[in-house]
Amino acid sequence: MAEVGGAALGAAFGELLNTVLEWKNNAIMFKSTLVNLQSILKELDPIIKEIAQQNNDLGRPKEELESLISEMEKGSKLISKCSQIHKLNYFAKLRYQKKLKALLDSLHMFFMVRMLAQLVRDQKETLLNIRRMPLVFERIEDTTSLDDTEINDSIESAMEISSV
């Protein structure tokens, strides 16, 4: 993966969704699972793209989304394999149905655990930044009697406090 972030996530997500759409009707044995997966992916598509963009804008580590990208890439390959199973191969059908369920479970866990943890972290960070705002305002107010160089130095100092 050359770039892990918005572009890589969008590509992996799009590939998985397109694979589901392509094979949903051909892989009759897995149709209900694939319809469920398609529904989930269509709902998440705009949200995931927005999260990836916001993570990029906020300078979040790209590793936060690596596991999701990896799961989507594996899911796309898995669905392609499911489409090649002969309808009378019940053992393969059972094995791949379990793998599809594991894919769905993995996606659920990602959003239930990791995204929830990221949400809590983001909220705490926002609260800390809000609490630091009075310090920034105090520093800016102190600049009213300073010249331009001192104002710039004071603003930079206040910005350092807010980013800590």
Automatic annotation (TrEMBL):
Domain RPW8: 1-149
PROSITE patterns in UniProt: RPW8
InterPro entries named among the record's database cross-references: Powdery_mildew-R_dom
Matching Pfam families: RPW8
Protein's name in the database: RPW8 domain-containing protein
Species annotation: Flemingia macrophylla
Organism lineage string: Eukaryota, Viridiplantae, Streptophyta, Embryophyta, Tracheophyta
